[in-house]
Amino acid sequence: MDLLDNFAMFFSGLQQWLYETVVQPVFYSLGLASFLEDAYAGTAWFLVGLIQIAVLLAIIGPLERWRPVDAVTDRATIRVDILYTLIHRLGLFRLALFFMLDPLFDSGFGVLRALGLGTWHLDQVWPGVSDQALVSLAVYLVVFDFVAYWVHRGQHQIEWWWRLHSLHHAQRQMTMWSDNRNHLLDSMLVDVIVVLVAQLIGVAPGQFIAIVALTQLSESFQHANLRFWFGRVGERLWVSPRFHRLHHSIGTGHESPVNAKPSEQTEFSAGPPQGKLAPPGGSEAHAVASVGASERREGPPRASSAPPGGSEAHAVASVGATTLGGHNFGVLLPWWDMLFKTVNFEHRYDPTGIRDQLEQHRDYGRGFWSQQWLGLKRLAGRA
Known about the structure:
Blueprint: H1 2-29, H2 36-66, H3 75-89, H4 92-114, H5 133-157, H6 159-169, H7 184-201, H8 205-222, H9 231-234, H10 241-247, E1 255-257, E2 273-277, E3 286-290, E4 315-318, E5 322-324, H11 335-339, H12 355-359, H13 368-379
Parallel strand pairs: 3-4
Antiparallel strand pairs: 1-5, 2-3
Helix pairs in contact: 1-2, 2-8, 5-6, 5-7, 6-13
Protein backbone atom coordinates (compact mmCIF):
# COMPACT_ATOMS: atom_id res chain seq x y z
CA MET A 1 0.00 0.00 0.00
CA ASP A 2 2.93 2.31 0.74
CA LEU A 3 4.17 1.78 -2.80
CA LEU A 4 0.81 2.87 -4.21
CA ASP A 5 0.70 5.88 -1.93
CA ASN A 6 4.23 6.88 -2.92
CA PHE A 7 3.44 6.55 -6.61
CA ALA A 8 0.25 8.58 -6.17
CA MET A 9 2.20 11.33 -4.39
CA PHE A 10 4.90 11.30 -7.09
CA PHE A 11 2.31 11.46 -9.87
CA SER A 12 0.38 14.25 -8.16
CA GLY A 13 3.56 16.28 -7.69
CA LEU A 14 4.58 15.79 -11.31
CA GLN A 15 1.11 16.78 -12.48
CA GLN A 16 1.17 19.92 -10.35
CA TRP A 17 4.65 20.87 -11.64
CA LEU A 18 3.71 20.40 -15.29
CA TYR A 19 0.45 22.29 -14.80
CA GLU A 20 2.03 25.27 -13.06
CA THR A 21 5.11 25.39 -15.28
CA VAL A 22 3.61 24.84 -18.72
CA VAL A 23 -0.15 24.45 -18.90
CA GLN A 24 -1.35 27.31 -16.70
CA PRO A 25 0.85 30.00 -18.33
CA VAL A 26 -0.21 28.85 -21.80
CA PHE A 27 -3.91 28.99 -20.92
CA TYR A 28 -3.54 32.44 -19.39
CA SER A 29 -1.73 33.72 -22.46
CA LEU A 30 -4.50 32.36 -24.71
CA GLY A 31 -7.27 33.91 -22.61
CA LEU A 32 -8.59 30.50 -21.54
CA ALA A 33 -8.46 31.00 -17.78
CA SER A 34 -12.05 29.72 -17.45
CA PHE A 35 -10.83 26.25 -18.55
CA LEU A 36 -8.01 25.94 -16.00
CA GLU A 37 -9.82 23.33 -13.90
CA ASP A 38 -10.35 21.14 -16.95
CA ALA A 39 -6.75 21.78 -18.04
CA TYR A 40 -5.53 20.41 -14.72
CA ALA A 41 -7.43 17.16 -15.33
CA GLY A 42 -6.13 17.10 -18.90
CA THR A 43 -2.59 17.30 -17.56
CA ALA A 44 -3.19 14.04 -15.69
CA TRP A 45 -4.38 12.31 -18.86
CA PHE A 46 -1.32 13.56 -20.72
CA LEU A 47 1.05 12.22 -18.05
CA VAL A 48 -0.72 8.86 -17.99
CA GLY A 49 -0.30 8.65 -21.75
CA LEU A 50 3.41 9.39 -21.49
CA ILE A 51 3.81 6.66 -18.86
CA GLN A 52 1.93 4.18 -21.05
CA ILE A 53 4.09 4.93 -24.09
CA ALA A 54 7.21 4.57 -21.95
CA VAL A 55 6.02 1.13 -20.84
CA LEU A 56 5.31 0.16 -24.45
CA LEU A 57 8.80 1.14 -25.55
CA ALA A 58 10.68 -0.19 -22.52
CA ILE A 59 8.84 -3.45 -21.79
CA ILE A 60 6.31 -4.61 -24.39
CA GLY A 61 8.45 -3.67 -27.41
CA PRO A 62 11.40 -5.86 -26.29
CA LEU A 63 8.96 -8.71 -25.59
CA GLU A 64 7.69 -8.46 -29.18
CA ARG A 65 11.24 -8.74 -30.47
CA TRP A 66 11.91 -11.66 -28.14
CA ARG A 67 9.03 -13.93 -29.21
CA PRO A 68 7.20 -12.51 -32.24
CA VAL A 69 4.33 -14.35 -33.90
CA ASP A 70 4.84 -12.71 -37.30
CA ALA A 71 7.87 -11.18 -38.93
CA VAL A 72 7.51 -7.41 -39.34
CA THR A 73 7.07 -6.90 -43.07
CA ASP A 74 4.88 -3.80 -43.27
CA ARG A 75 6.29 -1.00 -41.13
CA ALA A 76 4.18 1.65 -42.89
CA THR A 77 0.93 0.27 -41.47
CA ILE A 78 2.53 0.08 -38.01
CA ARG A 79 3.49 3.76 -38.26
CA VAL A 80 -0.18 4.61 -38.86
CA ASP A 81 -1.08 2.64 -35.73
CA ILE A 82 1.51 4.63 -33.78
CA LEU A 83 -0.23 7.81 -34.93
CA TYR A 84 -3.55 6.47 -33.61
CA THR A 85 -1.87 5.67 -30.29
CA LEU A 86 -0.39 9.17 -29.93
CA ILE A 87 -3.75 10.80 -30.76
CA HIS A 88 -5.60 8.77 -28.16
CA ARG A 89 -3.04 8.33 -25.38
CA LEU A 90 -1.69 11.90 -25.28
CA GLY A 91 -5.12 13.47 -24.94
CA LEU A 92 -5.77 14.91 -28.41
CA PHE A 93 -8.87 12.79 -28.90
CA ARG A 94 -10.13 13.62 -25.40
CA LEU A 95 -9.54 17.30 -26.09
CA ALA A 96 -11.80 17.08 -29.15
CA LEU A 97 -14.45 15.23 -27.14
CA PHE A 98 -14.23 17.87 -24.43
CA PHE A 99 -15.22 20.68 -26.76
CA MET A 100 -17.85 18.63 -28.61
CA LEU A 101 -19.55 16.60 -25.87
CA ASP A 102 -18.75 17.98 -22.42
CA PRO A 103 -21.31 20.81 -22.64
CA LEU A 104 -23.98 18.23 -23.49
CA PHE A 105 -22.96 16.00 -20.58
CA ASP A 106 -22.91 18.94 -18.16
CA SER A 107 -26.33 20.09 -19.33
CA GLY A 108 -27.87 16.62 -19.18
CA PHE A 109 -26.56 15.70 -15.74
CA GLY A 110 -27.40 19.20 -14.48
CA VAL A 111 -31.05 18.60 -15.40
CA LEU A 112 -31.01 15.25 -13.58
CA ARG A 113 -29.59 16.80 -10.43
CA ALA A 114 -32.16 19.58 -10.58
CA LEU A 115 -34.81 16.86 -10.59
CA GLY A 116 -33.28 15.35 -7.46
CA LEU A 117 -31.69 12.42 -9.28
CA GLY A 118 -28.17 12.54 -7.91
CA THR A 119 -25.29 10.23 -8.81
CA TRP A 120 -25.32 6.82 -7.17
CA HIS A 121 -21.96 5.86 -5.64
CA LEU A 122 -21.35 2.15 -6.11
CA ASP A 123 -18.47 2.11 -3.64
CA GLN A 124 -20.87 3.06 -0.83
CA VAL A 125 -22.81 -0.21 -1.06
CA TRP A 126 -20.84 -1.76 1.82
CA PRO A 127 -19.49 1.06 4.03
CA GLY A 128 -16.15 0.24 5.57
CA VAL A 129 -15.37 -2.39 2.94
CA SER A 130 -16.37 -1.35 -0.58
CA ASP A 131 -15.16 2.21 0.03
CA GLN A 132 -11.58 1.05 0.70
CA ALA A 133 -9.34 2.34 -2.09
CA LEU A 134 -8.21 -1.01 -3.53
CA VAL A 135 -11.59 -2.67 -3.02
CA SER A 136 -13.52 0.12 -4.73
CA LEU A 137 -10.98 0.16 -7.56
CA ALA A 138 -11.48 -3.58 -8.07
CA VAL A 139 -15.28 -3.24 -7.94
CA TYR A 140 -15.32 -0.44 -10.51
CA LEU A 141 -12.84 -2.33 -12.70
CA VAL A 142 -15.12 -5.38 -12.84
CA VAL A 143 -18.20 -3.24 -13.57
CA PHE A 144 -16.48 -1.35 -16.38
CA ASP A 145 -15.15 -4.59 -17.84
CA PHE A 146 -18.64 -6.10 -17.83
CA VAL A 147 -19.91 -3.05 -19.73
CA ALA A 148 -16.91 -3.24 -22.08
CA TYR A 149 -17.69 -6.87 -22.90
CA TRP A 150 -21.20 -6.00 -24.10
CA VAL A 151 -20.04 -2.88 -25.93
CA HIS A 152 -17.40 -4.94 -27.71
CA ARG A 153 -19.90 -7.65 -28.53
CA GLY A 154 -22.24 -4.99 -29.92
CA GLN A 155 -19.44 -3.72 -32.15
CA HIS A 156 -19.31 -7.19 -33.69
CA GLN A 157 -22.99 -8.10 -33.83
CA ILE A 158 -24.69 -4.84 -34.81
CA GLU A 159 -24.25 -4.45 -38.55
CA TRP A 160 -23.75 -0.67 -38.78
CA TRP A 161 -21.41 -0.66 -35.77
CA TRP A 162 -19.29 -3.44 -37.28
CA ARG A 163 -18.85 -1.31 -40.42
CA LEU A 164 -16.93 1.13 -38.22
CA HIS A 165 -15.24 -1.35 -35.89
CA SER A 166 -14.01 -3.52 -38.77
CA LEU A 167 -11.19 -0.99 -39.31
CA HIS A 168 -9.69 -2.22 -36.03
CA HIS A 169 -9.75 -5.82 -37.28
CA ALA A 170 -8.38 -5.02 -40.73
CA GLN A 171 -4.84 -4.76 -39.36
CA ARG A 172 -2.95 -7.82 -40.61
CA GLN A 173 0.34 -6.71 -39.04
CA MET A 174 -0.92 -6.57 -35.47
CA THR A 175 1.41 -5.08 -32.83
CA MET A 176 1.29 -3.37 -29.46
CA TRP A 177 0.34 -0.15 -31.28
CA SER A 178 -2.83 -1.63 -32.81
CA ASP A 179 -5.20 -1.14 -29.86
CA ASN A 180 -6.14 2.44 -30.76
CA ARG A 181 -6.52 1.77 -34.48
CA ASN A 182 -10.23 2.59 -34.59
CA HIS A 183 -12.56 4.76 -36.56
CA LEU A 184 -12.99 8.03 -34.66
CA LEU A 185 -16.79 7.63 -34.63
CA ASP A 186 -16.39 4.17 -33.12
CA SER A 187 -14.07 5.54 -30.43
CA MET A 188 -16.49 8.38 -29.74
CA LEU A 189 -19.42 5.99 -29.23
CA VAL A 190 -17.41 3.84 -26.83
CA ASP A 191 -16.18 6.87 -24.85
CA VAL A 192 -19.71 8.26 -24.53
CA ILE A 193 -20.93 4.96 -23.07
CA VAL A 194 -17.98 4.74 -20.66
CA VAL A 195 -18.42 8.33 -19.45
CA LEU A 196 -22.15 7.81 -18.92
CA VAL A 197 -21.52 4.68 -16.87
CA ALA A 198 -18.81 6.47 -14.86
CA GLN A 199 -21.23 9.30 -14.05
CA LEU A 200 -24.08 6.96 -13.15
CA ILE A 201 -22.10 4.80 -10.71
CA GLY A 202 -20.15 7.70 -9.20
CA VAL A 203 -16.54 6.70 -9.83
CA ALA A 204 -14.08 9.30 -8.59
CA PRO A 205 -12.00 11.12 -11.24
CA GLY A 206 -8.72 9.72 -9.94
CA GLN A 207 -10.03 6.16 -9.95
CA PHE A 208 -11.51 6.64 -13.41
CA ILE A 209 -8.12 7.69 -14.78
CA ALA A 210 -6.46 4.69 -13.08
CA ILE A 211 -9.04 2.27 -14.52
CA VAL A 212 -8.71 3.66 -18.03
CA ALA A 213 -4.91 3.63 -17.82
CA LEU A 214 -4.77 0.04 -16.59
CA THR A 215 -7.26 -1.08 -19.24
CA GLN A 216 -5.42 0.64 -22.07
CA LEU A 217 -2.04 -0.73 -21.03
CA SER A 218 -3.43 -4.24 -20.80
CA GLU A 219 -5.06 -3.88 -24.22
CA SER A 220 -1.76 -2.77 -25.75
CA PHE A 221 -0.14 -5.90 -24.32
CA GLN A 222 -2.97 -8.08 -25.67
CA HIS A 223 -2.45 -6.74 -29.20
CA ALA A 224 1.31 -7.27 -29.11
CA ASN A 225 2.99 -9.35 -31.78
CA LEU A 226 3.93 -11.77 -29.04
CA ARG A 227 3.75 -15.56 -28.79
CA PHE A 228 2.70 -15.65 -25.14
CA TRP A 229 -0.04 -16.99 -22.91
CA PHE A 230 -0.72 -17.24 -19.16
CA GLY A 231 -1.09 -21.00 -18.80
CA ARG A 232 -4.22 -23.07 -18.30
CA VAL A 233 -5.24 -21.27 -15.09
CA GLY A 234 -3.99 -17.79 -15.92
CA GLU A 235 -5.85 -17.75 -19.25
CA ARG A 236 -9.09 -17.88 -17.26
CA LEU A 237 -8.12 -14.98 -15.02
CA TRP A 238 -6.87 -12.29 -17.41
CA VAL A 239 -6.92 -11.77 -21.19
CA SER A 240 -3.57 -12.71 -22.75
CA PRO A 241 -2.03 -11.91 -26.15
CA ARG A 242 -2.89 -15.44 -27.30
CA PHE A 243 -6.52 -15.13 -26.16
CA HIS A 244 -6.99 -11.79 -27.90
CA ARG A 245 -5.12 -12.73 -31.06
CA LEU A 246 -7.67 -15.46 -31.65
CA HIS A 247 -10.32 -12.73 -31.47
CA HIS A 248 -8.50 -11.04 -34.37
CA SER A 249 -8.02 -14.28 -36.32
CA ILE A 250 -9.48 -14.49 -39.81
CA GLY A 251 -12.62 -16.62 -39.89
CA THR A 252 -12.81 -17.07 -36.11
CA GLY A 253 -12.68 -13.79 -34.26
CA HIS A 254 -15.39 -11.79 -36.03
CA GLU A 255 -17.89 -14.26 -37.47
CA SER A 256 -19.88 -17.34 -36.49
CA PRO A 257 -21.49 -20.15 -38.53
CA VAL A 258 -25.22 -19.65 -39.05
CA ASN A 259 -27.41 -21.81 -36.77
CA ALA A 260 -24.43 -23.19 -34.88
CA LYS A 261 -24.74 -23.56 -31.13
CA PRO A 262 -22.35 -21.41 -29.07
CA SER A 263 -20.41 -24.49 -27.95
CA GLU A 264 -19.96 -25.47 -31.59
CA GLN A 265 -18.42 -22.14 -32.52
CA THR A 266 -15.31 -22.43 -30.41
CA GLU A 267 -13.08 -24.34 -32.81
CA PHE A 268 -12.60 -24.53 -36.56
CA SER A 269 -10.75 -27.56 -37.91
CA ALA A 270 -9.04 -27.07 -41.22
CA GLY A 271 -9.84 -29.31 -44.14
CA PRO A 272 -7.96 -29.75 -47.42
CA PRO A 273 -6.56 -26.48 -48.82
CA GLN A 274 -8.60 -24.94 -51.65
CA GLY A 275 -6.42 -21.98 -52.49
CA LYS A 276 -3.51 -19.80 -51.49
CA LEU A 277 -3.39 -16.19 -50.45
CA ALA A 278 -0.51 -14.01 -49.33
CA PRO A 279 -0.02 -13.15 -45.65
CA PRO A 280 0.28 -9.53 -44.50
CA GLY A 281 3.24 -8.07 -46.33
CA GLY A 282 4.99 -11.43 -46.70
CA SER A 283 5.50 -14.00 -49.42
CA GLU A 284 4.48 -17.16 -47.62
CA ALA A 285 1.25 -18.86 -48.65
CA HIS A 286 -1.75 -19.19 -46.37
CA ALA A 287 -4.15 -21.99 -47.15
CA VAL A 288 -7.85 -21.11 -47.25
CA ALA A 289 -9.81 -24.15 -46.22
CA SER A 290 -13.52 -24.98 -46.30
CA VAL A 291 -14.43 -26.29 -42.88
CA GLY A 292 -17.31 -26.86 -40.53
CA ALA A 293 -17.71 -26.06 -36.86
CA SER A 294 -16.58 -28.82 -34.54
CA GLU A 295 -16.44 -29.65 -30.87
CA ARG A 296 -15.21 -27.27 -28.21
CA ARG A 297 -11.66 -27.91 -27.08
CA GLU A 298 -9.86 -26.51 -24.07
CA GLY A 299 -7.10 -29.09 -23.87
CA PRO A 300 -3.40 -28.85 -24.67
CA PRO A 301 -2.12 -27.34 -27.92
CA ARG A 302 -2.67 -29.30 -31.09
CA ALA A 303 -0.24 -28.14 -33.69
CA SER A 304 -1.74 -30.13 -36.52
CA SER A 305 -5.03 -28.23 -36.53
CA ALA A 306 -3.65 -24.74 -35.96
CA PRO A 307 0.02 -24.14 -36.62
CA PRO A 308 1.57 -21.08 -35.02
CA GLY A 309 1.99 -17.77 -36.77
CA GLY A 310 5.02 -16.48 -38.58
CA SER A 311 6.40 -18.06 -41.70
CA GLU A 312 4.46 -21.32 -41.62
CA ALA A 313 1.27 -21.98 -43.58
CA HIS A 314 -2.05 -21.33 -41.85
CA ALA A 315 -5.45 -22.84 -42.42
CA VAL A 316 -8.08 -20.10 -42.58
CA ALA A 317 -11.61 -21.27 -41.95
CA SER A 318 -14.19 -20.72 -44.67
CA VAL A 319 -17.42 -21.96 -43.19
CA GLY A 320 -19.92 -21.00 -45.85
CA ALA A 321 -22.89 -19.11 -44.44
CA THR A 322 -21.82 -16.96 -41.48
CA THR A 323 -23.16 -14.13 -39.40
CA LEU A 324 -21.51 -11.39 -37.39
CA GLY A 325 -20.27 -12.71 -34.09
CA GLY A 326 -17.02 -14.31 -33.07
CA HIS A 327 -15.23 -15.15 -29.85
CA ASN A 328 -13.22 -13.70 -26.98
CA PHE A 329 -14.85 -10.27 -26.57
CA GLY A 330 -13.51 -9.83 -23.03
CA VAL A 331 -11.40 -6.69 -22.62
CA LEU A 332 -9.62 -7.53 -19.36
CA LEU A 333 -11.39 -10.56 -17.92
CA PRO A 334 -12.24 -13.73 -19.87
CA TRP A 335 -14.96 -14.46 -17.31
CA TRP A 336 -17.71 -12.87 -19.39
CA ASP A 337 -16.84 -14.96 -22.46
CA MET A 338 -16.90 -18.05 -20.27
CA LEU A 339 -20.24 -17.05 -18.73
CA PHE A 340 -21.95 -16.11 -22.00
CA LYS A 341 -20.51 -18.96 -24.11
CA THR A 342 -18.33 -16.89 -26.44
CA VAL A 343 -14.99 -18.20 -25.23
CA ASN A 344 -12.32 -20.01 -27.23
CA PHE A 345 -9.29 -21.24 -25.30
CA GLU A 346 -7.51 -22.88 -28.23
CA HIS A 347 -3.76 -22.48 -28.10
CA ARG A 348 -3.14 -21.17 -31.60
CA TYR A 349 -1.71 -18.14 -33.37
CA ASP A 350 -3.50 -17.60 -36.68
CA PRO A 351 -3.24 -14.80 -39.27
CA THR A 352 -5.16 -11.68 -38.29
CA GLY A 353 -7.50 -9.63 -40.46
CA ILE A 354 -10.93 -9.91 -42.06
CA ARG A 355 -12.06 -12.57 -44.48
CA ASP A 356 -13.22 -10.11 -47.16
CA GLN A 357 -9.68 -8.72 -47.38
CA LEU A 358 -8.66 -12.11 -48.78
CA GLU A 359 -11.73 -13.28 -50.63
CA GLN A 360 -13.03 -9.95 -51.96
CA HIS A 361 -9.83 -7.84 -51.76
CA ARG A 362 -11.74 -5.22 -49.80
CA ASP A 363 -9.78 -2.04 -49.15
CA TYR A 364 -9.77 -0.65 -45.60
CA GLY A 365 -7.22 2.08 -46.36
CA ARG A 366 -3.50 2.46 -45.83
CA GLY A 367 -3.26 5.91 -44.26
CA PHE A 368 -5.12 7.55 -41.39
CA TRP A 369 -7.42 9.71 -43.50
CA SER A 370 -8.16 7.03 -46.08
CA GLN A 371 -9.12 4.64 -43.27
CA GLN A 372 -11.45 7.22 -41.74
CA TRP A 373 -13.03 8.07 -45.11
CA LEU A 374 -13.56 4.45 -46.12
CA GLY A 375 -15.14 3.82 -42.72
CA LEU A 376 -17.71 6.52 -43.38
CA LYS A 377 -18.38 5.02 -46.83
CA ARG A 378 -18.88 1.57 -45.28
CA LEU A 379 -21.26 3.07 -42.75
CA ALA A 380 -23.27 4.55 -45.62
CA GLY A 381 -23.19 1.23 -47.49
CA ARG A 382 -21.03 2.61 -50.31
CA ALA A 383 -17.76 0.75 -49.76
